[in-house]
């Protein structure tokens, strides 16, 4: 099912847009208040000195669009959760099923992360950190916020990873929560992040089987 949705998203965007609209309505009615409250609680308990993490709204759309658009193409080769133009970012910021978060240093946006949620209690996570601010623990806090927001509301937490994105694969290989559920088209893996001690697991831990290019 997830492979089909990904094909629709990339090959038939007008069909995908209809699915998005229907999902947003159902999610808004069924889960929006609960998961937003969970996100706020996680933001209060997961912090990093010198940085501020918060939910984003439409008022931040210009900052998010500019932040993503200025990134070198090489760094966003495997990070394409949505278009980076202002219109798309603004639409998603108003979508109850798409929770946007930001990491700030003073007033500057240095990291962007999100939960793309579905009414059937599955969600997909994604995050991106500005190159100048990597290696400072921002990604760990992002993960803690995303994963626990999902887990604490009974959502399954997933992501898709290209087998050619070796840096991310190695990162997930060291993450005991990451388990491969299966393969997707175009050399992508479907990975679930499971709460430690839950007794759940996928088919295998994440491993870099391709090797460096």
Please, could you describe this protein's structure?
This protein is an alpha+beta fold. It has 2 domains: 2-152, 3-Layer(aba) Sandwich (Aminopeptidase), CATH 3.40.630; 155-213, no CATH class. The protein has 7 helices and 8 strands. An 8-stranded mixed β-sheet has the order 1-2-3-4-5-7-6-8, sandwiched between helices. A hairpin with a 3-residue loop joins strand 3 (108-118) and strand 4. It is globular, with a radius of gyration of 16 Å. The two termini are 30 Å apart.
Describe the SSE topology.
Layout: H1 2-11, H2 13-30, H3 32-45, E1 52-55, H4 61-69, H5 86-93, E2 98-105, E3 108-118, E4 122-129, H6 138-151, E5 156-162, H7 166-173, E6 178-184, E7 188-193, E8 204-205
Parallel strand pairs: 4-5
Antiparallel strand pairs: 1-2, 2-3, 3-4, 5-7, 6-7, 6-8
Helix pairs in contact: 1-2, 3-6, 4-5
Let me know the largest β-sheet. Answer: 8 strands, mixed
**Number of helical elements:** 7
Instruction: Tell me the Rg in angstroms.
Output: 16 Å
Instruction: Name the CATH superfamily classification of the largest domain.
Output: Gcn5-related N-acetyltransferase (GNAT)
CATH architecture of the largest domain, by name, is 3-Layer(aba) Sandwich
Shape: globular
Fraction of residues in β-strands: 15-25%
Tell how many strands the DSSP assignment holds.
Answer: 8
CATH topology of the largest domain: Aminopeptidase
Counted up, domains total 2
Largest sheet, spatial ordering of strands: 1-2-3-4-5-7-6-8
What are the secondary-structure elements, in order, as H or E? HHHEHHEEEHEHEEE
* End-to-end distance: 30 Å
Fraction of residues in helices? 25-40%
Low-confidence stretches: none
Query: What is the CATH top level name of the largest domain?
Result: Alpha Beta
Characterize the quaternary organization of these chains.
single chain
Structural class: alpha+beta
